[in-house]
Design a protein that fits this description.
Chain lengths: 641, 146
């Protein structure tokens, strides 16, 4: 019964999306229509939420008369994975996609940022997107299809996905991906109404911020998941799916910075528009890459060509439509205010050029194999390519970065900036010296990267000190300080883990020990344990120090009989500065097992840095909310957030 | 042409040159960093130089897995028509089994043995890497009953 209710709710949501699109565009002429569009957006959200609730109910109650549930769930699965399993498959994850889209539509309707006309047009665009994706679900990926006869038991969920990460990673990532639809809608709306101005930049800013924060957390969370779950000790593999999430993030980061200039001085208007369109286009391309099955990974649930074609159709229509609108309207826009070579605008321009170049590198490396596959040539692009280009671009970005906050809008003083940054320069030199002297193996690249990281972190500290002295350090101004410092911290973590990781692979019998990076690990053997829906080979390793046990590590290999698959549970012991990472390998007979161990220096910095970046974004957002809801607070909107 | 327009023209030209230069570099780097995928039959047909990295895919031949000293292991990848011996030192993916599909990354040594540095793990029992399917289809050993 709930299945039919869900289906009905989706159909009603589609009807409301049609109303929302029509009334949204008519709302440009009439306030009454605008109210209709708002109502339709809110109602659309309610019905999509109902449908989503119905699917969750189906999974929780193991209603195997629904194909989607029967294919992807099992009665023995723990409750958490019954719920998260809702989006651990193609149909459910697309429904989550549309749910997030409808939340953003409802938010646009509720807050009506940028005035009635702009919001109305934005609702129209959002309505079109809702129509497209609801049709996609109803026609190609219906999660409520019935199965007759109903099976007694479900097929289970891919064990790799039976992890708490599934509760967090897809919803955050979608909040980011789809959040860019709101900035896309506002950009298209501004092109339609012709009001490409500072008010528009201000209106779409919270959406850019939310999307960026969510993407940052989603990508970092996904990489953490891969790190502890795959057992290879790595955190980033330049996998097409990872690239698909990195590309919108790069553009969103560029957009975050260029919109700042547009909002503040009116500069870069057309560029900000174009970035808004690009950001969401890349979200759509990411959705296409991941969901169409053109690339192979744990993320690609199904490879039904019809679905790929449908998404490709939506993708082309959205991108071509928006770019057409842009080509038609943008030339009529006034060019922005002029700025001097030494100014914050110039710094932001360099930021944008470097970020978009990095995007181009990732885009080419990701698309190239897919294009060639169409001609029957099968190849993959390896990490060295990405590292060779992406690394230098990001280092260049970070060398320029500290100058931005130190230069005034329109015209700044480079000499003053240099003098202020002198302590940061000193910190960079010290960091490089320490790395060269104290760390083996000695590498110039490592010293250089640590110098750059220290330069950025120290520059954030300089920023904080100067603002404290001038009594202007607030929530808004701490945003860039935190985010930039976070980037420096993450860079150090990435560099240290990549350059100085220690790896050891041993075949051990019980009682035997292995040493790695100053750790002494005693292997105490493997025994079998049983989980709710798996059987595991559970290894015990004791970390020895001066003949005594100083810690315990218990990596596992789990066998899921329902799905007939195995997963690896790594054991990670961290002290905040380095991870001891142990994975159980395969059984070599007679009690002998292969054990793979890594010492990953500064690995925790990667995620700590990402968290700092997200915190910076949250500070910027908080300053916005305070400005809106507590109008008497000092107006941080004019500050640099 | 006034000063403003000229400046814009120079800017656009500079952008174009930089963009073209960058694209050239990127394509050049791509050439050196792509990994081609070959089946055992491809390897028998082409003369792949020793030390060139590529991926190989096929089935793990039945009764071919030998455990050697330490963590080292040897096995044979076959597509039914041709076979390539593989040497690997490392942890095997969970679903590495005789008769199952496998993709390995590495290069050939002087004696025609594939020295693998990674055995790809990202597949499950129901799933066969498409590259392997294509290789099996070309050698005529693909069975549709899967």
């Amino acid at each position: 019964m709930t299945g039919e209710l869900g289906q009905l709710a989706l159909c009603l949501a589609l009807a409301l999306a049609i109303v929302q699109a029509g009334a949204g565009f008519l709302g440009l002429r009439s306030a009454a229509m605008m109210r209709v569009a708002s109502g339709a957006a809110t109602g659309g959200f309610v019905f999509v939420a109902l449908a989503f609730g119905a699917l969750v109910y189906g999974f929780v109650t193991s209603d195997f008369s629904i194909v989607d549930v029967a294919d992807n769930s099992h009665t023995l699965k723990p409750l958490l994975y019954k719920i998260t399993g809702v989006w651990g498959n193609h149909e459910g994850s697309m429904l989550l996609w549309v749910l997030v889209l409808s939340i953003y539509s409802a938010a646009i309707a509720l807050f009506q940022r940028g005035g009635e006309r702009l919001s109305s047009a934005a609702l129209g665009v959002q309505g079109l997107l809702s129509i497209a994706f609801l049709l996609f679900i109803l026609l190609t990926s219906n999660p409520f299809l019935r199965l007759d006869p109903m099976p007694f038991e479900g097929a289970g969920l891919n064990p790799l996905l039976q992890d708490p990460g599934l509760a967090f990673h897809p919803p955050t990532l979608y909040t980011g991906y789809v959040g860019l639809s709101a900035t896309f809608a506002y950009a298209a709306a501004a092109l339609i109404t012709g009001d490409v101005d500072r008010a528009w930049a201000r209106a779409s800013r919270p959406f850019v911020l939310i999307a960026w924060i969510a993407l940052t957390l989603g990508i970092a969370g996904g990489s953490w998941w891969a790190y502890y779950d795959l057992g290879w000790g790595g955190f980033w593999f330049w996998d097409p799916v990872e690239n698909a999430s990195l590309m919108p993030w790069l553009v969103a980061t560029a957009l975050l910075h260029s919109a700042l200039a547009t909002e503040r001085t009116g500069a870069f208007r057309t560029w900000t528009l174009l970035l808004s369109i690009m950001a969401f286009s890349l979200s759509l391309i990411g959705t296409f890459l991941v969901r169409s099955g053109v690339i192979v990974s744990v993320h690609a649930f199904a490879s039904d060509p019809q679905r790929g074609e449908f998404i490709l159709l939506i993708l082309s229509a959205a991108i071509l439509g928006a770019l057409g609108l842009f080509a038609w309207r943008a030339p009529k826009l006034e060019s922005g205010a002029a700025f001097a070579p030494a100014s914050r605008e110039t710094a932001l321009l360099i930021n944008n050029i470097l970020l978009v170049s990095a995007l181009a590198v990732v885009f080419i490396g990701t698309i190239y194999p897919i294009l060639l596959a169409a001609f029957g040539v099968r190849l993959s692009v390896g990490g060295p390519y990405f590292n060779a280009f992406f690394g230098p671009l990001f280092v260049a970005l970070m060398i320029v970065l500290p100058f931005g906050p130190r230069l005034a809008w329109r015209s700044g003083d480079i000499k003053v900036a240099l003098r202020q940054l002198l302590p940061a320069f000193a910190a960079a030199v010290v960091a490089a010296a320490i790395v060269l002297v104290a760390v083996t193996p000695r590498t110039l690249v490592g010293a250089g990267i640590f110098a750059v990281g220290a330069w950025v972190i120290a520059a954030s500290a300089v920023d904080a000190v100067l603002r404290l002295r001038a009594r202007t350090l607030g929530v808004a101004s701490s945003a860039s300080i935190l985010a930039h410092a976070g980037l420096g911290v993450a860079l150090m973590g990435i560099a240290a883990t990549s350059l100085w990781r220690i790896e050891s692979l041993q075949v051990l019998v019980p009682g035997e020990s292995m040493t790695i990076g100053g750790y002494d690990l005693r292997f105490d053997g493997v025994h079998t344990v049983f989980g709710p829906n798996y059987r595991a080979d559970h290894a015990d390793l004791d970390m020895m120090s001066d003949g005594r046990v100083a810690g315990h590590l218990a990596p596992e290999r789990r066998m899921y009989p329902v799905e007939g698959q195995e997963t690896v549970q790594t054991a990670i012991r961290t002290n905040g500065f380095e991870d001891l990472y142990v994975a159980l390998g395969d059984d070599r007979g007679q009690g002998r097992w292969t054990v793979r161990a890594y010492v990953n220096p500064l690995a925790p910095f990667i995620w700590f840095g990402a968290a700092l970046m997200a915190l910076g974004g949250a500070a910027a957002l908080a300053a916005r909310l305070r400005a809106r809801f507590w109008a008497r607070a000092p107006a941080p909107a004019m500050e640099q957030a | 042409m006034n000063a403003r327009k000229r400046r814009r023209l120079y800017f656009a030209l500079a952008l174009l040159v930089a963009g073209a230069g960058g694209a050239g570099l990127v394509v050049y780097a791509l050439q050196d960093n792509v990994l081609y995928f070959y089946s055992p039959s491809d390897i028998a047909r082409k003369h792949i130089r020793q030390g060139v990295a590529f991926r190989i895919g096929g089935l793990v031949e039945k009764n071919s897995v030998r455990h050697e000293k330490g963590a080292a292991i040897g096995f044979v990848i076959t597509d039914g028509a041709n076979r390539v011996p593989v040497h690997y030192e490392g942890v095997l993916p969970a679903l590495f089994r005789e008769g199952q599909g496998v993709v390995a990354m590495g290069s050939l040594d002087g004696r025609g043995t594939f020295e693998a540095n990674e055995i790809l793990a990202k597949h499950d029992e129901r799933y066969m890497p498409p590259d392997v399917v294509a290789a099996l289809k070309r050698s005529g050993r693909w069975k549709e009953h899967r």
